[in-house]
Amino acid sequence: MSDTNSPTSSYSDNWKRPPFIKRAWLRWLLMVGFAVYLAVALGTMDIDWQRAWEGLPRGQRFIEAFFPPNFADNRGVVWDGIMESIWMAISATIFGIILSIPIGLGAARNIAPSWVYFLCRGIIASSRSFPEIIMAIFAVKLFGFGPFAGFVALSIGTIGFFAKLLAEDIEVMNASQAEAVKVTGSSWFQWINYAIQPQVMPRMIGLSMYRLDINFRESAVIGIVGGGGIGATLNTSFSRYEFDTTAAILIIIIAIVMVLEYTSGYLRKWVQ
Amino acid sequence: MLRLEGLGKRYKTGDDALKGVDLEIPDGQVIALIGPSGAGKSTLIRCVNRLVEPTRGKVYLGDLELTSLSSGGLRKARRRMGMIFQEYALVERLTVMENVLSGRLGYVGFWQAFLRKFPKKDVREAYRLLDRVGMMHMADKRADELSGGQRQRVGICRALIQDPELLLVDEPTASLDPKTSRQIMRLINELCAERGLAAIINIHDVLLAQMFSQRIVGLKEGLIVYDGPPDGLTPDVLTEIYGEEDWEATIDEVDEDEDKDKDKDKDKDEAVS
């Protein structure tokens, strides 16, 4: 170890990991630039601490009005809203996934010809560029108030989500398994069924449970713009100042999302 | 049986993987294709079943010219060629039986395959083949539960249930231990003999190539540089194919090694065959 008896003492004992950005001036420019931007951005935010302080007791009163949650008084409408939301979420998930499968297959670079690829990627991109709430506003204008508008909005949202992730899962599949099935002389549909489907199935089942979960939560939001379901009930309870009912609805939503979370975890383990 | 005429492949990257290969394989002949990595061995056998599209030359399977076939014609032609892969390429989440039966996909309709309702004779043949390679008891296991050697046995069944005339075998032993490698090579050889199959076997292990084939073709930089009997592989020839090395040990060990192996594997092999 010591310098006297080590024959390697002429080697450097100093090593540093090479920096991610090699050019020093660029590295510093980026770091300083980012810091300056952050400072300026915070400066323009215009936080009024006075108002925030005054708002605290108001917020407290608001929260207090939530307690105790009232499950009893509006039982009928809450139950109807929940059922409508669940129906909307399930049917939009199923319908959306059925539409997603051909689009997802077409959007996988490694199995689709390029014109199909661009077409399907285009469909995915356009369905992803609008959040569900915007879709719901369109759908309400088109089909009128009610759960059908919500169903349409959620189905379109599901396509953007599911087709994209299906396509990406196909793109990273094991290519030699697919080759092996192809060289048996299988047709295209047989090939999808025997080589692609088994590889992507577990993830797809997990994702469809996750999407069901998203669609249920979204149904609460799009109800506010007229898409029906528990969102409509939630909105009504707000505008009537029945905050105890609001609290009950929120608790039910949380409970249902948790049930879905556990179910999807269990299902995923089971299908691995 | 199989005839390649001036077969060439240039990849989009500009690599000339094959530079005009002429090769003729008669019925029932097992040839080993040796050569360094990147010599074009994989490209050659993939050009035969058009997993890789050749850029020039012709491939004749019997009287049928393969390179000009439409996709429907290619599907029919592919049924006549079984392929065995380096990393087994079993569909991991399917059962052993489904993997074997997938070799019949070229013969059954979509719904039959989708509902897993294969003709009775296909199922019987699948069981017979699995029994032949000693995998009968594994029929309903999922492919990802098997060991390497077991997977390759299933891969062999999948290729054979196609009832092919030609086997294309791509590095069948590259992921296997030496003993399993020998068992697998012996199995492929025996099955080819039983059914009168021709085979092209890509293989890195010169020793195994010599032990288990009637003819050896050496490929180097996309061209055939040796075509002859296994015992014609002298150090000079190996130097020509692979480049300068000490080759004596590789060649001399042949018989000795095989005998030793036979004794050791005796009980295992009986269970297998």
3D architecture notes:
The complex is a heterodimer of chains A (272) and B (273). Chain A has helices spanning 24-44, 49-64, 75-106, 114-128, 132-143, 147-171, 175-182, 188-222, 230-239, 243-271. Chain A is mainly α and 272 residues long. Chain A has a single domain, classed as MetI-like fold (Orthogonal Bundle). In chain A, helix 4 (114-128) packs across helix 6 (147-171), helix 6 crosses helix 8 and helix 8 (188-222) runs parallel beside helix 9. The longest helix of chain A is centred in the C-terminal third of the chain and has 35 residues, at 188-222. Chain A is extended and about 70 Å long. The two termini of chain A are 52 Å apart. Chain B has one domain (29-52, 67-272): 3-Layer(aba) Sandwich (Rossmann fold), CATH 3.40.50.300. In chain B, helix 6 runs parallel beside helix 7. Chain B is of the alpha/beta class and 273 residues long. Chain B is globular.
